Amino acid sequence: MLQKIRMLLMFAFVIQPHLSAKFCMRRYVNGKWITKGDCGGPERMSSIQKELQLRAADEKKKKKRIADKKWTVFQRIKYGNVDFFRGWDDYVNGFGDRDGDFWLGLEALNRLTKEGNTELKVKMISKRGIYSVAKYSNFAIGPGSDNYRLHVSGFSGNVTYDALYYNDNEQFSTKDADHDDAHSQNCANRQGGGWWYGGCASFLNGNFNKTYPMGIWWGSQHLRFSEMKFRKRL
User: Fold this and answer.
1) Which tens digits make up the pLDDT trace of 176-194?
2) What does the H/E/C string look like for 27-71?
3) Are 89 and 55 in a shared domain?
4) What is the pTM of this model?
5) Which of 42, 68, 94 is at the close of a domain?
6) What angle do CA 174, 178, 182 make, to 5 degrees?
7) How many folded domains does the chain comprise?
8) Which domain holds residue 81?
């Protein structure tokens, strides 16, 4: 579609009101528009360009809407009305309201990401109202036999801190199933939610009304909103 629009920008035929057609060719060469034939003056070409630019913008928006629909949200904390301080079985099977605060479930995450070629996006809003996005080009969750180990890499986004760097290759832990690296304590019990703990550091499954060590945190950012979603790489 965009290629067709570019072609229309280079070759335009202006149809006059009395059904007579006047040839108009306009090309963009070395930073300048070169016109051949009768293009009806600069006002006419300006209207044509605006129309084509609008079409290109609409096409871009359409592609973005299609791409957005392909994301699968698997974690969200927005209202703070769902308890994330839960045991292993709840985290395996999922809980909460898909339209509000919820967790999809580790078994579903493994089934949907185990083949790879999956990317991750994390959206967050801090207590100060700062909106941030972290993206990862590679994301997968291992099987239950390996305690749903996290595999994540390829960080980018407008947040400067790669908080999941310390969670990569970690098994999932809950208050009743301790698989973290902090041998002296259960991080899920200390922080108030299940997570892939690489030590008791950043985590998103908590209660945003709580303060450290509980709450939801991305590095040193105390959050009031988090959403995690994945899709097959385009």
Assistant:
1) 999 998 778 899 999 999 9
2) EEECCEEEEEECCCHHHHHHHHHHHHHHHHHHHHHHHHHHHHCCC
3) no
4) 0.71
5) 68
6) 115
7) 2
8) 72-232
